[in-house]
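Ticket #4471: complex job returned nothing on first submit. Input attached below:
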Amino acid sequence: MSTITAAPPPPTTVRPPVAARRPPNPLAALRLVVLVVGALIMITPFAYMVATSFKAQAYVLTYPPQFIPRPATLANYQQALSSEDFPRYFLNSMLVAVAATAISLLLSSMMAYAFARFRFPGRELLFRIVLLGLMVPAMMLIIPQFVLAKYLHLIDSLAGLVVFYVAGSLALNTFLLRSFFAGIPAELDQAMEVDGAGAWSRYWRLILPLSRPALATATIFTFLACWDEFPWALTLINTPSKRTLPMAIDLFHGQNATQWGLVFAASTIAVIPVLVVFLVFQRHFVQGLATGAVKG
Amino acid sequence: MSVIAARAGEASATAGASPVLHRARRRRIPITPYLFLAPGFVVFLALIIYPTLRAFQMSLYDWKIVANASSTFLGLDNYIKAFHDPHFYTSLVNSAVYMLCTVPPQIVIGLVIASLLQSHAPARPLFRVLYYLPVVTSWVVVSLLFTYLFADDGLVNYALSDVLHLTDQVSWLSNRWTAMAAICALGVWKGIGWSMMIFIAALQGVPKDLVEAATADGAGRWQRFKAVTLPAIWPSGVFVTVMLVIGGLNVFTSVYLMTGGGPAGQTDVLLTYMYSLAFDDLNFGYGSAIAMLLTVCVFLLSLAQLRLFSARAEAAAR
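Support reply: We reran it on our side without changes. The output follows.
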């Protein structure tokens, strides 16, 4: 599946007439039922979460559980948005995720470009070292990274989060992008080279624009990983004003052990950027996954 | 994982996909690739590779986090300690159980859903998004959500006891195995969409003419699957399995938030145990040793899987 297509595959509604005229059969109905049931299982927890976010505290643990809150209230959202620097936590997460994603994509695409487009001594060795990063579980490194952060005076700083998030995502992004870049025909590079374009120009004006699916995939992965990251933020950040969203949500749970409405209001707010990023990029996403994972 | 990818790297290198810079009679080594590599690689070396080596070093000491305190060299004592530590075995068993209970369902169900979403399925993009939603949601959010669902008065108990009349109320998170069941349920629920996506892409790559030829030869659904589809999606299946096993053994946030490893460390997995050793007991050396043992496990398992599955793929290709 090494095709570079300028546009995503056509939607499934375009079909040859023969297939469209097939009479409805029980197997297709069964399939639809299974799909719908499965989708419901995927969605129900979320629906329940959003529903609960509109419940007043007293109704949160009623039995039987309410699916439709009666009475519904916006109090949780008001409290989440106005209390305890919640908007600040949102901003912290946004800053960190955007910065880390941008830097990581830049650095990893540069590395991927070097690995995909050049031959040089040590290339295989260096690439294998990058792959080693994929094998090493991130959690295992928390301890030495904490010690290192202490040494670099990055403890309790958002910059410390950004720096380590970038480092943690480099291996996967480089791997994904490299296999994509390698699939871009070399003739295009050569054509530009004949016209006098240097390596940076080719990188910036040829390879990157052609790699939208892979870049979109890498963006989604990295942004999500940074937005949702919990253990490292928990370890590194002490000052309340520097907390990220996952930490804040966990705190709502800890301090107010039974204020589920509040927890879920905060969670719903936290999920929105994720949905936005995913929906915006998802057109490219499957294609990017295909080339990265299936080939890789 | 690295073996597959390394082979892929070599394959694309020798396939001539990368143009050698055409300057006449080049002898000198081009500096450009190194310039492109440098920024990312420096960060990578400093913040990933160096800590990896340090993790190993720390595991050999009784590591003191306070500056200027000297750490006692222990050699392999931390590792020997692990083998005599019942808590270590508990967390090892829990990690293995989690992995064994979450990986196969994710693969099978993901594959089933992916094949159901092949041609002619209505509203395909919508279903894809819905199934993928749990994957992109934060572990923190879904862990708390499932804690709420599995609460004593929660939705799961309600569904099981009052709606389906299957059982009395269960206090899920208070006992080891029911808590593990809840944690595993979360793991499967969250991951199905991911493997589904990979399999969707892989199934699109199955050569259609082979499928038609098999059908023309009178092969039934299952035979078609075994003979044509399965070999075609095998590499993706291997990728999914390896990644899921790695992910499963590295579970942390869901266990940490749902049970905290409790009660009394009975639902600890290897990483939550490591974390509590390091940041609750301040026993960094021993914690690092646990982490290294986990890494070695993951590495050996991945290697074994790749060996095993590559051999099968070659046999199937014959």
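Confidence is low (pLDDT under 50) at residues 1-7 of chain A. Closing as resolved unless it happens again.
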